[in-house]
Amino acid sequence: xxxxxxxxxxxxxxxxxxxxxxxxxxxxxxxxxxxxxxxxxxxxxxxxxxxxxxxxxxxxxxxxxxxxxxxxxxxxxxxxxxxxxxxxxxxxxxxxxxxxxxxxxxxxxxxxxxxxxxxxxxxxxxxxxxxxxxxxxxxxxxxxxxxxxxxxxxxxxxxxxxxxxxxxxxxxxxxxxxxxxxxxxxxxxxxxxxxxxxxxxxxxxxxxxxxxxxxxxxxxxxxxxxxxxxxxxxxxxxxxxxxxxxxxxxxxxxxxxxxxxxxxxxxxxxxxxxxxxxxxxxxxxxxxxxxxxxxxxxxxxxxxxxxxxxxxxxxxxxxxxxxxxxxxxxxxxxxxxxxxxxxxxxxxxxxxxxxxxxxxxxxxxxxxxxxxxxxxxxxxxxxxxxxxxxxxxxxxxxxxxxxxxxxxxxxx
Length: 412
Ligand SMILES: Cc1cc2nc3c(=O)[nH]c(=O)nc-3n(C[C@H](O)[C@H](O)[C@H](O)COP(=O)(O)OP(=O)(O)OC[C@H]3O[C@@H](n4cnc5c(N)ncnc54)[C@H](O)[C@@H]3O)c2cc1C
Fold this sequence. Notes:
- By secondary structure, this protein is α/β, with parallel strands linked by helices.
- It has twelve helices and 19 strands.
- It has helices at about 10-25, 60-70, 85-95, 100-115, 115-125, 145-150, 150-160, 170-175, 200-210, 255-260, 325-335, 380-395, and strands at about 5-10, 25-30, 45-50, 75-80, 135-140, 165-170, 185-195, 215-220, 220-230, 230-235, 240-245, 245-250, 270-280, 290, 295-300, 305-315, 345-355, 360-365, 370-375.
- The strands form three sheets. Strands 3, 4, 5, 6, 7, 13, 14, 15, 16 and 17 form a ten-stranded mixed sheet that branches. Strands 8-2-1-12-19-18 form a six-stranded mixed sheet, sandwiched between helices. Strands 9-10-11 form a three-stranded antiparallel sheet, with no helix packed on it.
- Flavin-adenine dinucleotide (FAD) binds near residues 46, 297 and 374.
């Protein structure tokens, strides 16, 4: 018999999970403080790449950080007033850069995202929005031999986990993406990947279908979670007290605050990223392009072309610093000198990031009726639909197809 489930969060993780739970016949209510798809899941780079199985903390990261921080066009920025708060997380992040941990993390990431396209297929067909997902290769471009060689370990890991790659030279890069500047000497083409042409519309389409299928979405802010015998008993929201029977927490970057109200501490940080979307860029982009040094993705979207990237540590609540979007625009012009930048929009979003680059997916330790699904960091779009499947399996008492131990909440 279906359970009565309350789920916090209507980002991609929340809506994919709610959709899979509803497919199993549960009575599901989503509670969200933002309309579906209007928080971090609004503006990502759209990449659905099963190849993306490398953690953020890689061997040698400690020695790269000073260079990143001192480069005005670098991919990393720390607001110094926030540094003392971020430091414990950063130390844990760096501690995760040893080879053994990186090997394990990459295996665990691959296990989640290897069937991301298949996991979305079920949902987008049902929601009538299969057009949003493109199967496509993507290109990674390097300006120098040195930066190409600097990524050798990452490519080794990806290949060992089953990613097929094809190395291309400068002429090959031009053939694949003719409008890319001529300063890229080395490239890697990654076939059989995918991307979403409008990440916000994807979440909204899932939300509409979820409601058509009998699910409920309430726009409310959860202020506290009442706990008693048997686990979580009620959500205290800005509208009313809502009794809960089974609770799933998919609150993105706010999941740390929500888990803390349940007595479970998790080290989650807001890793703030930016995008600039050009509605009339005068570019024909045949596939997404990643420039590894700048750590940016440029993706063709139904709204135009989007460049996304940057990792800014300033906490959840600080105002956006759109100078970081200016940095993205500088990279865009360097990559595509012909780009028309006259009509663009800018955005900042908060990646929910864990120091070991792995999400938390699975049951709470302290409460039998609570499940967690958050902390996907740079891979929340890739991980959204697979996570929904895993949570639906766990709630139903089915064994998920992968070992869930690496994602447990009490691993820290
Ligand atoms: C610049 C950038 C580029 C990216 N590119 C990619 C990419 O190409 N591929 C990829 O896989 N990932 C990418 N990501 C990461 C991805 O976007 C995130 O991991 C993902 O969106 C997180 O989804 P989520 O559902 O966990 O969180 P969110 O989308 O942030 O949703 C959280 C939900 O929880 C709700 N909520 C939180 N607290 C409460 C509360 N107290 N009460 C009620 N509701 C609450 C919010 O209202 C919201 O609905 C990128 C991120 C950024 C910033």
